[in-house]
Amino acid sequence: MQSAHTQIVNPPAAGLWLERDAAFTLVETARLFEVDSPLLRNNPYALSAPPNTQRARRSDWKVFTAFCAERSYLPLPASPAVVAAFIETMSTATSETAARSVATIERYVSTIAHAHTLANLPDPTRTAYVKGAYKQFTRGRPASQPKQALRWEHVRLALETLNTGSLTRDLRAKAMLAVAYSTMARRAELVALTVERCHFDNEGEGTALIYMSKVDREEPRFLSQEVVVHLKAWLQHAGIISGPIFRRIENTGAIGTRTIHPQEVARTLQRIGRAMSIASEEAWPSLRLGAHSTRIGAAHDMVAAGIDLTSIMHAGGWNDPKMPRYYTRELAAKDSGMARLMRGRR
Length: 346
Prior knowledge:
three-stranded antiparallel β-sheet
């Protein structure tokens, strides 16, 4: 087995074929996950994953191919030694860059595996060499830093008291916070919501038709009276009668016509957190807030209310119980068999 640090190959000039039966040239390999990828010539379904997944794969592949180019390594097919060296490098902090998280490295490895699958090449990530490297360089490191849960008590406090001095931004933030909690929508699902997909009844409640790109289906989600009040307040203030609900606010203060970027959801929650931490005497999470914080918080509230797992999965659009169980593991520990046993002995 070659050392992980050994130069694997001297790459051919740009545009030349890598080997006699290679599917792509070196130039084409670098664009494997791009919209104009050569894969589309023979496989129109190669880029059929959800947009967020495609975007992540493009980003990951650029990191890996840049790593290979700097060292004259061949990225496709990649030797197990090359992938192992990549994992080691990404796991090691330098004076210029921080060590990547375990979750990021896991995603990198998944992208490399998928690239080889698309190219009909043996997957180096399935070898004992790469699996061993992954275990060695991720051992003892937390797999992820879970986002802080925003429960209804936090959401309600922000809806009642948030005041940053910008009425437009505050109304949009309150509507976004309320709808995100009530629908448990992911960030891409939230920003894709339009006026036409929301329906209100005579009792003041409503539903939002959420398009779930991960599974390519639509599901109606409940909007409570309090949520509808804040949603309508934003729509009326912004003069929005059709199209995207959560729109960009221009530098001039004017409300634009384009929807916000999905990353703006997390930034909005973080801004709310900072404002609430300063203005409110009550505890309000401000650290590790992300776009999933409302989703996690709603799951916590449902578990605390004794709602069954199937209903929680339906409310959040989960097909697998793994994630809702992961999100609510702290509450589950407090209601575990051991917890009930020990409390019964008091």
